[in-house]
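pls design
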């Protein structure tokens, strides 16, 4: 949730910045309506759900749930969580703050709008009705404005007939009527809701102000398209007379003096219908390109039955957790899956192999999911351990807790690296890199004969170099690229890693409790 939300807000901010940069040139070249339509791009990105990448995750039918990692305690016992952890962690605090801010702004906006609407309509007089749109006169407004979604209203000042010439009144009224008929009033409400979602973002506030100007300019263009060029000056005079500077929160008003000069300049642009059509096509292409490029990705894991466990040489257990190579790390990993067969086979090289192909040093200590332990090459229950063996297991558990503490500290960095690898896999970059490596090896192989003399001069055998490159090429060809990509994406599952950490810590705490009870006997 946090990842998707942060990705969405960041991508939307980038698109808003992009629109702010190009809206003026677009207005000059293609007209105000096209510049207004540009705001669809960041809006669609904000509302776009994450795209799903489906990954099949192999689960062995013969294995029970794995013993995995959990939050690390101190050596003496479980760690007392900090205040931030008690409140749910930084992610929960950030999400809560965002929700509180968005909700407070939305509620305040609704209260302000309701109060302003009531003030405008309190002493108003209805003078006409055009379909479901009421036309009223009110002393609370200085210029015409349109507001309301279910109860649609056009409010006129009480001196409307005195201050405006007949032609100016008609054009001003047409402007507000156009706002209702084009859905601008409803769009203003939706735009405010989207602004609430980005209440903390200065770029969103700047974009909202620019959006409102582009809306008014587009409405001007719609009105001007229906009148002759001779009436443009009259329309500009109507705008100037309405510039009182006060409007309802969600209203489409004619009275914004801060943008008066820009709107008049905007009215001077009159692109051809062909150019406007080209502008709309350009917006569609921009959206079709920008939305997939900035999309958030979610990985859907589908568990499917797997075959036999990996070979003994593999350092990756069925849990997907990488096992370190040192004996101490092997002892502290607490990573042996729960298998029905706990047989141990001694190897000639001094190691032991557990069921499932897991290979450990003979002196290593490991833990099974049911709290049985491997000690001195034998699998035992905790109740079967001698005092010396219990001391040895206790030390191994404390080592595991220290290892878990280190893993917890490095977890954010590891998750970031895993997500980066998953992104590379999804984008095809990983596959392209593997293919490029193969091309480089084949090119090196082809060039060896031309530099054979130089290699011999440096004491190298060209044929040996060829054999090494051929071996690398064959080894790379044997790699299942699709499997590597699936594993890279699967490894980036933060929920799975967090669950592993929790489960392993619960096991460590449970086993220490059992050992304490046995020592007190």
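designed seq:
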């Amino acid at each position: 949730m946090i990842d998707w939300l942060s990705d969405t807000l960041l991508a939307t901010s980038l698109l808003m910045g992009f629109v702010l940069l190009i809206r003026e040139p677009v207005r000059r070249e293609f007209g105000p309506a096209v510049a207004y339509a540009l705001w669809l791009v960041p809006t669609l990105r904000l509302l776009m759900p994450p795209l799903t990448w489906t990954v099949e995750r192999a689960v062995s039918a013969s294995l029970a749930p794995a013993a995995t990692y959990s939050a690390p305690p101190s050596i003496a016992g479980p760690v007392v969580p900090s205040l931030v952890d008690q409140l749910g962690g930084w992610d929960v605090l950030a999400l809560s703050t965002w929700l509180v801010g968005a909700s407070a702004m939305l509620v305040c906006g609704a209260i302000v709008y309701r109060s302003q609407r009531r003030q405008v309509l309190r002493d108003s007089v209805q003078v006409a009705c055009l379909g479901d749109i009421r036309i009223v006169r009110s002393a609370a407004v200085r210029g015409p404005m349109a507001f309301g979604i279910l109860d649609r209203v056009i409010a006129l000042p009480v001196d409307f007939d005195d201050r405006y010439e007949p032609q100016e009144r008609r054009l001003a009224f047409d402007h507000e009527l156009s706002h209702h008929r084009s859905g601008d009033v409803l769009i203003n409400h939706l735009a405010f809701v989207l602004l609430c979602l980005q209440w903390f973002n200065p770029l969103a506030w700047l974009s909202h102000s620019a959006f409102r100007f582009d809306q008014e300019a587009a409405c001007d263009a719609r009105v001007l398209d229906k009148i002759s060029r001779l009436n443009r000056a009259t329309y500009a005079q109507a705008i100037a007379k309405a510039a009182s500077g006060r409007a309802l929160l969600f209203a489409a008003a004619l009275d914004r003096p801060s943008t008066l000069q820009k709107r008049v300049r905007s009215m001077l642009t009159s692109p051809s219908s062909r150019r406007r059509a080209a502008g709309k096509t350009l917006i569609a292409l921009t959206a079709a390109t920008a939305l997939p490029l900035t999309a958030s990705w979610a990985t859907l894991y589908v568990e499917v039955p797997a075959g036999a466990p990996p070979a003994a040489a593999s350092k990756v257990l069925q849990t997907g957790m990488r096992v370190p190579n040192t004996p101490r790390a092997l002892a502290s990993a607490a990573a042996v899956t729960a298998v029905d067969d706990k047989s141990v086979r001694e190897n000639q090289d001094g190691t032991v192999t557990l069921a499932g192909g897991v290979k450990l040093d003979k002196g290593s200590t490991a833990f099974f999911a049911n709290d049985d332990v491997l000690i001195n090459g034998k699998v035992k229950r905790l109740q079967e351990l001698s005092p010396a063996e219990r001391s040895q297991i206790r030390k191994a558990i404390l080592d595991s807790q220290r290892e878990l503490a280190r893993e917890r500290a490095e977890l954010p960095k590891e998750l970031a690296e895993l997500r980066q690898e998953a992104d590379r896999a999804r984008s095809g970059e990983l596959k392209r890199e593997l293919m490029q490596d193969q091309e480089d090896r084949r090119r090196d192989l082809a060039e060896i004969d031309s530099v054979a003399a130089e290699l011999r001069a440096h004491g190298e055998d060209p044929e040996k170099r060829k054999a090494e490159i051929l071996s690398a090429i064959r080894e790379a060809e044997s790699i299942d690229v699709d499997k590597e990509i699936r594993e890279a994406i699967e490894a980036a599952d933060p929920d799975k890693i967090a669950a592993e950490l929790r489960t392993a810590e619960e096991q460590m705490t449970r086993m220490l409790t059992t050992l304490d009870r046995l020592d007190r006997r």
